[in-house]
Amino acid sequence: MPRSQRNDNFIDKTFTIMADLILKMLPTSKRAKEAFAYYRDGMSAQSEGEYAEALENYYEALRLEEDPYDRSYSFYNIALIHTSNGEQQKALEYYKQALELNPRLPQALNNMAVIYHFQGEESAQKGDLETAEALFDKAAIYWKQAIRLAPDNYIEAQNWLKTTGRFNLNLV
């Protein structure tokens, strides 16, 4: 049974009914509607921490979905799951794929910056300051791109960029 038919609470059931009605009325192909249903089930599974199920749904949505913009969000959500699982390299790969299809995803840029910053912190703790600085510079590049797209967001990143002397937005 699809996840969308297993919702237990009133709000989830209401949202599912509304989404199903909208999906039926949309003038789009059966394949696109099916892709959206898998994407929606993936989001539901992900929100409940059922990451394996969510990944299956997102991969199926990617198989069916043809629209690059919509595909970018499946890649983004797959990256989120890999980030949550501590699989940073896999997450970076999926964030990059999301950005190739949709370069206006500041949240993907921010999450990449967070990963590079974390890796920089780890390198610094190990005493590898050269690698740490290179990773911090990478984090700065992605944060500046995210801030350029969403100037009112990522205040902590903006402060970090300023305090480390990396804030000049004209450099990226």
UniProtKB/TrEMBL annotation:
<keyword id="KW-0802">TPR repeat</keyword>
<protein>
    <recommendedName>
        <fullName>Photosystem I assembly protein Ycf3</fullName>
    </recommendedName>
</protein>
<keyword id="KW-0793">Thylakoid</keyword>
<dbReference type="InterPro" id="IPR019734">
    <property type="entry name" value="TPR_rpt"/>
</dbReference>
<feature type="repeat" description="TPR">
    <location>
        <begin position="35"/>
        <end position="68"/>
    </location>
</feature>
<dbReference type="GO" id="GO:0009536">
    <property type="term" value="C:plastid"/>
</dbReference>
<dbReference type="GO" id="GO:0015979">
    <property type="term" value="P:photosynthesis"/>
</dbReference>
<feature type="repeat" description="TPR">
    <location>
        <begin position="72"/>
        <end position="105"/>
    </location>
</feature>
<feature type="repeat" description="TPR 1">
    <location>
        <begin position="35"/>
        <end position="68"/>
    </location>
</feature>
<keyword id="KW-0934">Plastid</keyword>
<dbReference type="InterPro" id="IPR011990">
    <property type="entry name" value="TPR-like_helical_dom_sf"/>
</dbReference>
<keyword id="KW-0602">Photosynthesis</keyword>
<comment type="function">
    <text>Seems to be required for the assembly of the photosystem I complex.</text>
</comment>
<dbReference type="Pfam" id="PF00515">
    <property type="entry name" value="TPR_1"/>
</dbReference>
<feature type="repeat" description="TPR 2">
    <location>
        <begin position="72"/>
        <end position="105"/>
    </location>
</feature>
<dbReference type="InterPro" id="IPR022818">
    <property type="entry name" value="PSI_Ycf3_assembly"/>
</dbReference>
<feature type="repeat" description="TPR 3">
    <location>
        <begin position="120"/>
        <end position="153"/>
    </location>
</feature>
<keyword id="KW-0677">Repeat</keyword>
<comment type="similarity">
    <text>Belongs to the Ycf3 family.</text>
</comment>
<keyword id="KW-0472">Membrane</keyword>
<dbReference type="GO" id="GO:0042651">
    <property type="term" value="C:thylakoid membrane"/>
</dbReference>
<dbReference type="InterPro" id="IPR051685">
    <property type="entry name" value="Ycf3/AcsC/BcsC/TPR_MFPF"/>
</dbReference>
